[in-house]
Design goal:
The protein is mainly α. It is built from 8 helices and 2 strands.
Length: 159
């Protein structure tokens, strides 16, 4: 089941996304936020849920001279797109594994905290110049080998 909320991302997140968009050529914030979320969730260490609230001036829509809001809003359905339900389940599992009740508010804060941590890791690599550089940040895991013969043997022995 997907989540129905909008993330209010602070100006610091917006500034990081602007830089990453310029470097990678990706045209949408939600794509970079999804990468950041996944990069952070792959790390088994818990995130800290501090500083996830946008201050009241930003949440009231105070504008820059250029007419841009200091913060931006990202609806969950846009962040997750076709994988919104999967990402929601991953966040719920993560909340439970870290001893948190997976309420709407907790999941909202957890999602933003993971996006912030993932973006911080992306930004730490100042040599990011393309999408290929982002792919290099993805964690590697040992491939799982499935023996085709043992699966056939097991199904034969069931008869």
């Amino acid at each position: 089941m997907s989540l129905d909320f909008t993330l209010r991302c602070p100006k610091s997140v917006r500034d990081q996304l602007i830089w990453l968009k310029r470097q990678t050529g990706l045209s949408h914030y939600h794509t970079l936020c999804r990468w950041a979320l996944c990069l952070s969730v792959a790390d088994p260490r818990p995130v800290r849920l501090i500083g996830t609230e946008v201050d009241s001036a930003e949440s009231e829509g105070e504008l820059f001279a250029e007419g841009e809001s200091k913060s931006f809003e990202l609806p969950w359905y846009r962040l997750g797109q076709r994988d919104a339900d999967i990402l929601a389940d991953i966040l719920r599992a993560r909340a439970i594994s870290e001893g948190m009740e997976p309420t709407r508010e907790v999941l909202q804060k957890l999602a933003l905290a993971h996006i912030e941590r993932g973006l911080a890791r992306m930004m730490a690599r100042k040599r990011i110049r393309s999408i290929a550089d982002l792919v290099q940040l993805a964690p590697t895991h040992e491939p799982v080998e499935i023996s085709h013969n043992s699966a056939v043997e097991n199904s034969d022995s069931a008869d």
